[in-house]
Design a protein that fits this description.
The protein is α/β, with parallel strands linked by helices and 324 residues long. 32% of the residues lie in helices and 27% in strands. A five-stranded mixed sheet has the order 1-7-6-4-5, sandwiched between helices. Strands 8-13-12-11 form a four-stranded mixed sheet, sandwiched between helices. It has a two-stranded antiparallel ribbon with strand order 2-3. Helix 4 links the parallel strand 4 and strand 5. Helix 3 packs across helix 4 and helix 7 packs parallel to helix 8. The model has no long low-confidence stretch (mean pLDDT 98). The structure holds oxa(dethia)-CoA. The site of oxa(dethia)-CoA has 21 residues, from helix 2, helix 6, helix 7 and strand 12. Oxa(dethia)-CoA binds next to helix 2, helix 6, helix 7 and strand 12.
Length: 324
């Protein structure tokens, strides 16, 4: 028997405060036109003062549990992807575990920045197929507004806050490509390129939180090729081809990266879930937010093949192929 990690439920949470592009023009030499044309972003949500990553993660998790019809104490593990944790330690996942009263779950954070949710899904899949867990709650949650340099127009207009979550459950599959659930995963990292996207502070170096620094154009140049390559590897591992993809659910960094990758994979934009115009780049939260939006809007049918892909700081990148 082959065990497959099947998506049972999806949920999300976005902070109340919406920040339109226009708001940045009050303090910076920028424009709504530039931001829309170069990125596709129109607005984003920012967490309220005092609203934390765990606050958002808990709300997204509750929505996912409700969608799955699963109680918190039926969860065996919580994996939370974030680069903006509440505290240095304990992990944000354990804070969420306490708030959900998920008494039977072990919990840990995964830090792979924008690729965090892909890495977390890969870990959840490994726990499920190896029999170490039967139900795993996987969350992506970020408060990037807390690490932005609001005097740097090249970065501060790009990011937003939010959280998304999925409940994965072990299910018996046949081992064929027709199984529902995660069919293949591909993960990559190249730490020699850390200067392309990093935060200039940390516990053991500066003792500060730091702010985000990015060499946008250099990262842009690599993104489409690396994403198409990891997608191809994951598809081949799944025993599928480009023509089998029903939906791309990409990390939401830039509409030009999203459309360039879709083009390489031979899919029209009608088959790509795009949320970044309303949410900006929410790092590890962007894929589960897009999944939740896709489900809420009736995009996915049972049996559809979804390709999830992301790249970000590290560099770290990867893809997951799953059948809905
Ligand atoms: O989530 C992790 C993954 N993230 C990514 O993959 C991001 C990848 N990079 C990108 O999405 C794009 O490189 C950006 C959106 C960050 C930048 O777009 P770009 O088309 O690469 O612009 P650029 O950085 O080459 O800048 C072009 C011009 C520059 O002015 P000059 O030197 O030509 O006079 C910038 O100073 O646009 C200027 N500029 C802006 N102008 C108005 C940069 N930011 C802004 C701004 N408003 N906010």
């Amino acid at each position: 028997m082959t065990v497959r990690a099947v998506v049972r439920g999806v949920g999300h949470y976005l902070p109340e405060r919406v920040v339109e592009n226009e708001e940045f023009t009050r303090t910076l030499d920028t424009s709504d036109e530039w931001i829309r044309a170069r990125t596709g972003i129109e607005r984003r949500h920012f967490a309220a003062r005092g609203e934390t990553t765990s606050d958002m993660a808990t709300r997204a998790a509750r929505n996912a549990l409700g969608d799955a019809g699963v109680k918190a104490d039926e969860i065996d593990a919580i994996i939370l992807a974030t680069a903006t944790p509440d505290l240095t330690f304990p992990s944000t996942a354990t804070i969420v575990q306490a708030r959900l009263e998920a008494r039977n779950a072990f919990a840990f954070d995964v830090q792979a920045v924008c690729a965090g949710f892909i890495y977390a899904l890969a870990n959840a899949n490994a726990l499920l197929v190896s029999g170490q867990a039967r139900r795993v709650l996987v969350i992506g949650a970020e408060t990037f507004s807390r690490i932005l340099d609001f005097s740097d127009r090249a970065t501060c207009v790009l990011f937003g806050d939010g959280a998304g979550a999925v409940v994965l459950e072990a299910d018996a599959g046949s081992g064929s490509t027709q199984d529902r659930g995660i069919l293949a995963v591909d993960l990559n990292a190249d730490g020699s390129q850390r200067d392309l996207l990093y935060v200039d502070g940390g516990v053991s170096s500066t003792g500060t939180v730091g702010v985000l620094k990015m060499l946008g154009p250099e990262l842009f140049k690599q993104a489409v090729n690396k994403l198409a390559e990891t997608a191809g590897t994951a598809l081949a591992r799944a025993g599928l081809q480009q023509g089998d993809i029903d939906w791309i659910v990409p990390h939401q960094a830039n509409i030009r990266i999203i459309s360039g990758t879709a083009k390489k994979l031979g899919l029209p934009m009608e088959r790509v879930i795009v949320t970044l115009h309303d949410q900006g780049n929410t790092s590890a939260a962007s894929i589960p937010l897009a999944l939740s939006w896709g489900k809420e809007n009736g995009k996915f049918s049972r049996g559809d093949v979804l390709l999830l892909e992301a790249i970000g700081g590290g560099l770290a990148w990867g893809a997951v192929v799953l059948r809905w």
